[in-house]
Structure formats: structure tokens, C-alpha cells
Amino acid sequence: MDPFDPTPDDRFTFGLWTVGNVGRDPFGDAVRPALAPSRIVERLAACGAWGVNLHDNDLVPFGASAAQRERIVAEFKAALAEHGLCVPMATTNLFSHPIFKDGAFSSNDPKVRAFALRKTMDGIDLGVELGAKTYVFWGGREGSETDACRDPRTALARTRDALDFLCEYVRERKYDLKFALEAKPNEPRGDIYLPTTGHMLHFISTLAHPEMVGVNPEVAHETMAGLSFVHGVAQAMEAGKLFHIDLNAQRIGRYDQDLRFGSEDLRQAFLLVRLLEGTAGGARYDGPRHFDAHAYRTEDEEGVWDFARGCMRTYRMLAQRARQFDADPEVRALTAAQDDGELDPLLAGFTPEKARRLRALEFDVEARARRGLRYERLDQLMIEHLLGFR
Amino acid sequence: MDPFDPTPDDRFTFGLWTVGNVGRDPFGDAVRPALAPSRIVERLAACGAWGVNLHDNDLVPFGASAAQRERIVAEFKAALAEHGLCVPMATTNLFSHPIFKDGAFSSNDPKVRAFALRKTMDGIDLGVELGAKTYVFWGGREGSETDACRDPRTALARTRDALDFLCEYVRERKYDLKFALEAKPNEPRGDIYLPTTGHMLHFISTLAHPEMVGVNPEVAHETMAGLSFVHGVAQAMEAGKLFHIDLNAQRIGRYDQDLRFGSEDLRQAFLLVRLLEGTAGGARYDGPRHFDAHAYRTEDEEGVWDFARGCMRTYRMLAQRARQFDADPEVRALTAAQDDGELDPLLAGFTPEKARRLRALEFDVEARARRGLRYERLDQLMIEHLLGFR
Amino acid sequence: MDPFDPTPDDRFTFGLWTVGNVGRDPFGDAVRPALAPSRIVERLAACGAWGVNLHDNDLVPFGASAAQRERIVAEFKAALAEHGLCVPMATTNLFSHPIFKDGAFSSNDPKVRAFALRKTMDGIDLGVELGAKTYVFWGGREGSETDACRDPRTALARTRDALDFLCEYVRERKYDLKFALEAKPNEPRGDIYLPTTGHMLHFISTLAHPEMVGVNPEVAHETMAGLSFVHGVAQAMEAGKLFHIDLNAQRIGRYDQDLRFGSEDLRQAFLLVRLLEGTAGGARYDGPRHFDAHAYRTEDEEGVWDFARGCMRTYRMLAQRARQFDADPEVRALTAAQDDGELDPLLAGFTPEKARRLRALEFDVEARARRGLRYERLDQLMIEHLLGFR
Amino acid sequence: MDPFDPTPDDRFTFGLWTVGNVGRDPFGDAVRPALAPSRIVERLAACGAWGVNLHDNDLVPFGASAAQRERIVAEFKAALAEHGLCVPMATTNLFSHPIFKDGAFSSNDPKVRAFALRKTMDGIDLGVELGAKTYVFWGGREGSETDACRDPRTALARTRDALDFLCEYVRERKYDLKFALEAKPNEPRGDIYLPTTGHMLHFISTLAHPEMVGVNPEVAHETMAGLSFVHGVAQAMEAGKLFHIDLNAQRIGRYDQDLRFGSEDLRQAFLLVRLLEGTAGGARYDGPRHFDAHAYRTEDEEGVWDFARGCMRTYRMLAQRARQFDADPEVRALTAAQDDGELDPLLAGFTPEKARRLRALEFDVEARARRGLRYERLDQLMIEHLLGFR
Fold first, then answer.
1. How far is A10 from chain C (nearest CA, A)?
2. Residue C155 host element (H or E)
């Protein structure tokens, strides 16, 4: 067996919309035919994935009748059962239909806001029926090109109202479901409200039920703005708010690329896997590893499965490199904690006496400043591990 | 009198380090001689500024003796009194000296952390002595080039410890002082922890005394990452956390430019002034308008005062344009609230009955989707107001 | 009459694909119905435009029969004649059909390259039939996501072969037609070959008939990469290579926004109009001012014409502001040429004697370095003119 | 012996200013003492470098007397001879002294232009005396923050005059010296003229002696703007204009980072080394591999040599990975040329007959469009080679 073949413990998932992407873009038409959800389930299972995620309309078309919905869902459940895949996450498509052209929860039009709420309640019901434990909110159209159209504070207040409403809906239904909010700085809107995982984390702290709500950071979305994805995810983990994660690849300062995981910026991908796998200390992230990416537009269906296998293999390869790096004695020596029996207690919690002792402390500032920290050596070791030469 | 001359009600401030900037950059030497703090006070007052801000070492050199400090502070206070300027904000220089080369509060070295705490306590004392009501924290060196050197969660925990410590220090001293945290995504570090105002707002919610701590967003810092500064400031205002603001200009995706306020992206500057002045609804921000910028390196001292006057004039010009825009009847018609007596109550707070009624609601989705929102017209009106042609 | 109404002398043009844009984007469906070309011609004429441009398939669908083509072209010509619009520019759609998914002229597949050449010859014939004097080449799919697929030098060589072939085709047909090459750094490909106007200008210098070929710079495309559009256009003008120009608006580091001209970064739009209008010295650019932009997705058809009128009005408003700025005596004083009767001849063309005299020259370097250049004042005057306060 | 130890055949070079960098930045003071040039020579030789490059003032201080210059140069030559290092490249510092605060060759002040020419003639003499065969021009201050100060066309014309002058100087002196022009988009100026390698290549084509002048592309400079460095270098190589190269690492959209080669974006570094080494076809670049980078500010002198060794090791490691990738039979199969005996001649050079035959060509466009290109598989193979798992 190949050591990089995926296992259920990896909790690798794909979305119906990711491997099912037909390759339409702003400048060109579809290059691949649409795949039936049951076919996606079959092939994802064959590739070794653990689960499959979906927007409501990935499975049930917009405007389908109740009878159509029942038939479609039954077929999909049968395919899941046959191939042993689960649906750990679901979400609502609040961006494709023109009704959402100026946003959903934050729209100026009360009818649109009402429609968005209702569509989300239905989407939650669908997700729960399929077994989802996490419900993602990506407010792709919640933004603007002209800020003259709406006070951004109004947008935030409306979004808060919607999420509070939906949290209560979940509580009233006694669903076992958490929410995960996904930030993006821009595209398809000029600016999207709550543009980064940091803004989302703060917004969550202002909700009526913050304990039900975490984040779903996406590599591409933070990277578009040139922010450190690793730092953003770490802040979410430290706050106990990493409820889901979207893995892909992206170059800074570009359109949303959603490339195969690990195909750009291997260094950041390595640092991310190391953080999620907990090899450098800290607990392992135990949620799904969702690949929110799609195959190049040059590919036919076979290329789609090349792509899917590549995402999972690279994750596992990076996990092995991370374990090797963190086990390297030279790395351990260079990163050993600098404990100080006298100072550490002084720094942990103010008292007037500690302040006095800190002020009285004597040490040679210039000498301390001259010490080299050997970070060039440490970083070079990381690169050599990544390249497989240590 | 010129209608754009500054008034005390504008609360315009500059830093000693801004108008005192000597023009050194990574590729070249100083182009202007250093100015004595008392000269800066005199000339800022002549330009119409209301206050002057400072880092500890802008006034008192690193390592100065207590006697030197006393003499310098006394002279500075005399200049302030003579020219009628106040010191509304102070901060600590935790980045220039090599001791801080790998951070201050988040350094791996307990001695450096101790030194940073102590220096900040001293800086707080100095600020309070000069009358400051806001104390800013910019963690310019709290970051990394190689994330192998430190778990970002450790960095956050150390920074939290430091701020909790210092909050208690202020409380114990009974100082009338709030903290304002300033984010920046990168430079001078490869990545700085807590890179945006959003990340800072969340971090504040995890402190022991969040009520004492707000943010100090800076135009250049959010703009470097291409984020909407207006949205970030609005989120802070909505949360009651806009304690201070740093005004300047910057192009996206570049080194930290700290240009004259309004000299780049007039549209965003207009939207910002409109938000701060409350002309479009919402309360006016009543804190200082601090210009954290410096004159081009092509300037001598006279150019520095051109620069300072320009910052203030442009702010006032934009405020007038904002008032005109928001008073324009066509603008008011295009932005009138769409209240809906039936729907608005349904959207405000979940009940099972409201959910049922939302689900029963009938309306023509396609017709609603087809409506044009006239945002092109609205935005064009904004541009024509900005250009002075309405 | 409104002083900002467009005139034929402005040579304002739009593309069928710009005002005809139906608002589809990667995340959502069309929001507006397609407009018939004849309707576009009628409404553009009513708005005051001078010309309309097109891709072959904007008018004649991909795969149309010869008879269909004849009928469509005849109808279109009739509409042009009726409403007094011309077609100054035409181009080929080498990006929408999946056959071009890996490029056209640079594709690895000789059949695709052959098909692209043939389609372009047909497009040229169509353009010439409609009266076009400029034929634009935008290689939107000439790029890659994985550079392992093709040596970039091979891509350049193939593109050169295609352009040399097509230049000869035009010469053989004795068409009165110039080519204008349009660069873009990325989107819809990860990287596009010849990413900026600078790269294009050099590439042109390597063609067999460089005299037939110039550039078509687009605001959005250079701005995506954060480059100075004004500098790029100026370099093209200095080389006599500005054959066409695409005007719109864009924020740095984002997806291709194609916003209404002047709606972002008014400062750069002002500098651009000033350069094109020749108000700051240098000849006026006398080619078409083409608006390659589209209305926000929030708009219906009425909003599309708001958008079109806005593009033209803002251009004219900026032209007026540019004239005022350049006529301002204070501006003229600050920008007066520093002629030096002794030095200027020394600097113009090497001789050993001049080198000797330059070396013998005495002047006070430190004193010269200390002079302030008053650029802050100059720039502030520009902002005040822009805002309409001078 | 370690297989990644540098060899003379690698032609690895560093600048005095790179390993000699003292770590000053816009926010902080020097962290390392300056190193004597002779010490740098000794240590670089010990690390395995082949050559050392310099700005005039890296060796001879600004304003030094002729006698000082002679003594310093003699000592330096002795050190070179003792340690077996050569000086393949030299350049002029036209940016540190305040006299150049508004540019050198493009300054509005004829005295500054004269001084810059003279300083460059002296720098050329120095470089030639030390054996340099390449003279680099980086116009770091040739730019602006306010384009109102100077027409960019004037800046280009002045720069052309200066380079034409200096080419003639070199010809008259019969120096065996080529020029290499280095582009940068911004920093330390808001915008720098001729911002990319593409713009430089075109500019060279407008000089009086283009055959003497090529480019010196720098990884960090093109990457700041998010452009493909590999494509830019390939364009220069195809034109026979890659005269020198500056290797380092940089993240997109940031200040000039000048990081250790290979420490960011390993994928692009791999593709670059593969291009330079000629493993994928095309000739090997035979000029120096110059590392224009510096150690993190966290390092003391020992860290500087860690840094220098890391640059060279990573280059050699990537070269090995490139050879392995290009020798992989699966890669070769996926990238095999698609020759077409019928079509290839048709595409190579226009004749009316070829045009006719192209038009008569029949093939199934839809079928051709459906073919998958297997680029996901190809790219995944590249990543697995990079990670050392193939």
C-alpha cells in the first residue's frame, strides 16, 4: 500500500461543487459536463475521500418541488450508503441566483432578507437530514461596490440578526449542528463585509449564542489579501473556534483561484499541515479537512480525479515532512523553550510587587540585543526537510 | 478666514515622529535635520493642530537618566503650555532598539519580555504625566519571518499576558487611560501577529479587561492588505471600540508609505471622513484625528509644514463634500430605507411562529431579482460631488 | 447644454460586450437579458458615444453559417448608419470556447493554433468590412497554471509566428489596419504571457513588422499588478506605440473588476486624462477613448446607460480639472523647467571633452541635497484642483 | 563531500552590501556591526562563493580622497587574490545620498544629473579595475510620489541620454563591459520608472547601442508586483538579454524583503532554477548567480554565513530536483511535443496559399475541445519531485 493513500482518519472531504465544477469562468464556457451527485459519490469514495459536502442547490435545484427534492435526496442517500461516504458539512447557496445580487442577509430589500432566511432554514433541514454536523455560512454577495448604498454597520447588524435568528432555529429544532463562518475579502463583490477570519472571530463574539458559532477559514481567501493563513488559523484554534477548514492553493493578490491543495506556496502549506496535525505542540485539529478547490480548466473528468487524489496525497506528504522536521534534534535544539525561573512568574499576572521587581531588574540590554537567534539556520532546515534532503 | 483652516473642534493631531521624520529609508540617509520637540510644538500650533502625540523615545532618548528625563519633560511641558497644544495620546517605542529585533511582548526571551513590560510602564507614566488619555500599542516587531521559531498561539498568549498585566497596572495606579491596539499585516516583520483591525477586535474580546481596550486603525495598514478601511473602522465603531485613528494615505500592496492624508484614493478618504463625521447617519466619532504620516523625502522643513497643512485641509474639504453629498435630494431618494411593515418584525428575532410565517410567505422571486438598484447612478453622484461638480 | 456632454471629438467608444454584459460571474448567473447589437447601437448613440467596438462573436455567433453572418452584418451596418456610429476597432474572441482552454496562438496543439489563426483572419475581414482601423489582440488564455506544461519561450515564439503571419495577411490584403496588443498579468490564467504593456512593447520590437503593431493598455490590467498605468501609457506614447486605450477602473490586487471609468482612484484617472489630453505638455492622444468596462451586477438596463453616461462625464470633468491645474500660476511656478545653459549641453551626447569637463565640475553637493522641492505643496494643489476647491 | 556544496562552476556571487547588511530598517537601528570588505571576502570564499560584487560606495566611501581610494582598492585586491574571489559585477550607488532624493539620471536638476553621470563614470572605472565584466544599473530613486513633478516621458528621455552617454564612455575607453538594467516597480519611490523587466527590455531597444545592454532581473522586484518571474526571465533569455540575475525570495505585494533564496515560494524557485540550468530544454544560463539578499535581522554574523550557505545549498538542491523531474519518464510522456507534419509548415510564415489551406482545413472543434490535457497530473508530479517523494 502507498503510504500516502488517504485513510478515514484523515477526514478528507470534497464538495459536490468542487469536483463537480464544470470550468465556467468570466471569460469562457464550461469545459466539462456536469457530473451526477451519485457519480461524484462513487468516484470520491474510490479515491479514498471520507465525506462529501454540499450547498442546497448542488443537490436540489433552485425552485425544485417537494416531490423532486424527496426523490433526489433519497437517491443521494442511497449512493452515500452504497459507497460509505458521509456528509459532514452543508451550506446554503445565497449567491448564484440574481435575487441575491446585492447580498442576502445584508440586502437593503426586506423581501430578499426574508427569502434568504427561509432558504437557509430549508438548507439546514436538508443538511441535518443528510447527517451534517457543521453548517457553513459564506456571505459571498454580502458586500458592495459603492459604499454609498448602505452603511457597513447596518450590514453587520442585519447579518447578526440573521445569525441569531438561525441559531435559535437550530436550538428550537434541537439539531446537533454548529455554524462555521467563512470570510473572504472581495470577489464577487468589490468588498465583502467581514473580510478576514479575524473580523469573523470578533463578529462571533457579538452574537447571542457565540458558543454555537466558529469559523471556516479558507486558504485562498486569506491569501488573496496576503495575510498569513497560518496565523489566522492559529488565532481561531487558540480561541477554540476552528470548526471547519477549507484547503486549496492561491497566489497573493489575484482572483479566487481555488487551486489543488499544496500546488502553490509549499512553505505555507507545510506550516499549515504542521499546525493542524499538532506535530509542533498543541492539539491536533480533529475536524474534516475539506478541499474547496477545483481542477484546472484544461482537464476532463479524468483530470478531476487526478486533482482530487493530488490534494490528499500532498496533505499526507506534508504531514510526514512535518513529523520529520519536528523530530529533528537540531530543530529541537534551536527551538528549545527559554524558561527563566526568576522572570516567568514575574510576567504572569500583575501585582504591585511584581511591577516593583521588574523595575529593579538589572540586565545588560546591549549584550542581550547582540545575541544571534539562528533563525536562518532553522528556516534552512525547514526548507531542506520540505525538499526531502534531511 | 479660509473655511478649511483647522479648528480645535477638529481635534487634529500629529506625532513628534511624523513631522519630525528625517527621511531615512532602507535605501538612503536622512534628508532633513531632526527638529527639537519644542520647535515641533511651536510650528504645529502655528499650523492649527490641536495636539501632539509621542513615543517615549521621541521625547526622552533610550537610556536617558532620570535627571535628563525631568529636564526634557519640563521643557516640553513649557512648550505645550506656551503654544496651547495638548498630548492626547502616547505610546511606547518597542521596535527601534535591537533588543526588540524578535519582538517585545511575544519574544521568546523572557528578559526581553520583562524589559518591554517595564519600558511600557514607564511610557504609560510619561504619557499620563503629559495628559494623555489614550495609550497606543503597535506591535511592529511582534511577528516572524520563519514560523518555525514560535507557535503563533504562544505569541498571542504572551501578548495577552502583557496587556492584562498593563491593564492592571493602569487600574492600580487609577490612571484615566484607555488602550488602543493598532494592527499591521507586515513590515518590518514578514508577518505581524494580529494583522488587521478585525483580528485585534477579537483579541480584545479575550482580555481580562476588554472594556479598557479598543483599536487604533491606520489607513495605511489595512490598505496595504487591500482591505476596506471603511468597513474595518465601521466594525470598530459598531462595537464601540474606535478609541483612536491614524490617518494617512497608501497604495495597496506596497511598503508602508504613510503619505499625506487624502493624497491617494480620494474615494476611500471621502467615505472615511463621511463615516467619522457622521454625515450619513450614525454618531460622529469624537476622538482625535491623528495624522500618522510624514512628508515626502524630497522636502525640507518648509515642505513638512506644507504637508501638515495639507493633511488638515483635505480632511476638512472632504467633510464639506460629504455634507453636500448626504444632503443631495437625489442621493437621499436613491438611498431611502426600504421599510416593510409586514416583514421587518418577522426578521427581528426568531420565534417558531415567525419561522412558519416566513416559510408561508409568497412573492415573485424572479420579478424581485430583475429590479435595478441604480447604484451606478448613486456612485456617479458621489464622484461628481467629490470633483465639485454638483 | 451641459458642458460635460460628450462630443464626437472626444472619440468615446464602448464595446458590444461592455454595455451588453449580462452580469454573469464565477459565482452567479446573468442578471440582465442580452441586448441586440442594434439596440446597443441605438442607445449608445443616444448617450453620445462616437463608436462601438466588437469581438467577432459579439456580433456573429461562433459557428454561424455564411448566410447568417451576411444577414447579421447587414442589419448591424444599417443600425450604425441610422444612428451615426462607427466601428473604429475590432478583435477576435479567442477565449470563450473550450477549444481555447489552453491558449490559442500559444497552444501546444497545432490544430488549435491553426484554428485560432483562421478565426483571426475571419475576424480581421469582419472588422475591416465594418470600417475598423485598429485590430486588438488580447491573449486572455495565452498562459498557464503549471509552467511544466510549456516553455514560456516556446509560447513567445509561437505568438510571434502568429502575429507575423497575420501582419503579412493584412499587408497582402492591403487593409488599412494596425494591430494593438493588450497585456494582462493574470486571470483567467494563473499567469498570462507578456503580462504588462512593457513586456508587450518589447515583444513588438521583435516582430517582422513592428511598424504595424502598437499597444492597447487597459487601466484595470496594469492596476491589478499595482503598476503605474500613467507611466506605462507614457512609455508607449514616447515610443509612438499608443494605438488604442481601454479605460475603466480597478483596485490593486484583485480580480478583473472593469468598473466605471473614474470610479476608483481618481488621482490616477486625473493623471491619465491629463496625459492623454496633452494638457501637461506633449501631444494629445488622438485615438479612440474606449471604455472597456461594464455596469455593476446590481443594475438593470437603465443602470447600464447610467454607467455609460458616467464614464464619459467623468472623463470630461477630469479633462477640465486637468486644464485648470496646468493653468494655475502656482503650479506653473512650482514645475518650471530648471534649464542650465552650461550643463545641458554637457549632458546631451558623450564626447571625451564633455566627460573631462563633467569631471572637473565643482559644486556643493551637500547644499544641493538640502534644497526642498516643494512637491508636497504641488501635490496638495493637485488634490485641491481635483476636489474643485481651487 | 556534500553533494550540495557549491563549486566554481555554479558561479555563485554575493554583494558586499548583502552579507554586509547591518540590519537597519525603517523602524529600527542596525543589529550587526559593519564587516570590513576583506573579512567579507575571506568568509565568502570559505563558504564556497565564486565572486563578490559591489557598489562603488560599498568599498570606497562617498567623498573619499583619491589617496584613500587607492589604499582601499589595493587592500581589497589583495584580499581577492589571497582568497581566490573575483568581482564579476559592479554598480553605482545613486540612491543613498540625499543629493539623489529625487532621482539621479532623471532628476529635474541638471546639476544632479551631471553629478550622477560623473559618479557612474568613476564607478565604471572602479569596476573595470577590479575585473568586472557587467555593470548594473538599478534606478532606485528614478521615480516619483507625485507625477505632477515631472512628465514620465521626460524621465525616460533623460535616462536614455544618460545610458547612451555611458555606453559611449565605455566604448571610448575600450572597456570589456556590458550593462545590465534592473527594474523595480516601487520602493523607495511611490512608483519607479521602467517598473518591470519587460519595460526595461523595451527601453533597451530604444538605446543607441542596444547590443551592449541587457537586463538584471531580480526575483523580489518582479514578485512584489505578483508577476511571474520565470516568464520575465524567459522573455529576456529568448531575446538574448539575460546578462545578470539577482536571486532572493519575496512574498507578493510587500515591502522589498530580499530573503534567502528559496525561502519563499519553492515552486517558483524550482521553475527558475530549471530554466537557468536548462534542464527542460534551451541553453543553460552561463552568467553569475548573484544572491541579492540579506540575513534576517534576528541574526548575528554567524547567522549571516548560515544565510549565505543556505542560498547556495538550496539552489543546488533545486537543480537536482529539476534534473530528476525532467528525466522522469511519466513527465516526458505528458510533455511530449505534439508535432503535426501537415499543420506545422502551414503555421510557419504566411503565404496566400497557406492562408487558403488553413481556411479549407476540416476538423472537429468540439471533439478537440473535450480532450483533457492531464496538467493536474503533471503539476502533481512536479510537487512530488519537489518534496522528494518521486
1. 27
2. helix C152-173
